[in-house]
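Repro:
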Amino acid sequence: MLRVASIATVVLFAVSSAFAGEGMDAHYHLWVNGMTSSYKAYGLETKLETLEGVRGVRIDLERGLVAVDVGEGTRLEREDLARVIDESGFTLRKVSRIPPIEPGR
């Protein structure tokens, strides 16, 4: 039984690793002022998800941090992000792009 569980764990890890590297996603961290309402933050999340290439959005209200996952080759422009954030009632302070990790590095 232990051997079957070990094999299943190895296979699951291999499959998830293969999909994690697929597409070479990048991530953006957006520091935003004024996020105090989860309702308004949800509105921001919904608007960001409509931008082309966005695969996911996570919001940390306490830190004023929005993490945006984008697909391969997608680059988000600061002006577009600032517009969406402003339309949602917040102010963009800072944008950091975290590039994808290349396999073998």
